[in-house]
Amino acid sequence: MAVSKAKRVAALADGLSERRVMHLRDAASMLGVSEMTVRRDIADHADQFTYLGGHIMLASEIEPDRPYELATAADSHAQAKRDACVHAAKHIRDEETIFIDCGTTLIHMIDLIPDTAAVTVICYALNVAERLARRPNITMLMLGGLFYPASASFSAHQDLALLDGIGINVAFLSAAGVDAKRGATCEHFHEAQVKRKVLSLARESYLVADTSKIGKLKRAFFAPLGAFTALIAENGEIILPAD
């Protein structure tokens, strides 16, 4: 006998309470229905579930918007941020040039660069630069400009043209919001300008964001999700559909 929609929704909510994030195919298997049925249930209960890149999570996991402060953001979902960086660090290769974005997520990436890897790292955030400076095997290129204390980052406006002469192998970008329709957004407009420039140049670009960012939409848009090679969250890598 077919399970009622109300029972499916309740079972999905219970499953997500235990696992936090669930792939669409796993949810369909658990409920004994098609993936299309699960997607319809999710769409009909948008206040209860969030869906992105084939993954489902509870809408209650999405934090209400608050002003961004670097100091307070550092402790928010810290373990999830580290886990996402562990997955992202697999794309760091010896003797390549990488870009590490500002914020409190990708700061964990620096500790994951192998001591034996001789890499060049481009950055524009003070907290990232300070940690990179402690690594003797890393060549650092710091983009400067007007300093913004709230995100410990520089505008980098005058230095963006310098990037045209640099071969960026891999870019690791962060976002304060990841929306299925609108794409990747951040809090500050000067950051969006840097992110867009790097995206236009890098051979591979990974959006590294824990799942608390999914469903949020911030004021500064910088790229549709299809512009990235993949989205990397704490539960692994999600291949995004092309534009």
UniProtKB/TrEMBL annotation:
Query: Is Transmembrane helix included in the keywords of this UniProt record?
Result: no
**Domain of life according to the entry:** Bacteria
Q: A Pfam family in this protein?
A: DeoRC
Single GO MF annotation: DNA binding
Annotated Gene3D superfamilies: 3.40.50.1360
Give residue ranges for domain HTH deoR-type. 5-57
Keywords attached to this entry: DNA-binding, Transcription, Transcription regulation
Q: Does the keyword Transcription regulation apply?
A: yes
Q: Which SUPFAM superfamilies match?
A: NagB/RpiA/CoA transferase-like (SSF100950)
Q: What is this protein called in UniProt?
A: DeoR/GlpR family DNA-binding transcription regulator
Q: Which organism is it from?
A: Lichenifustis flavocetrariae
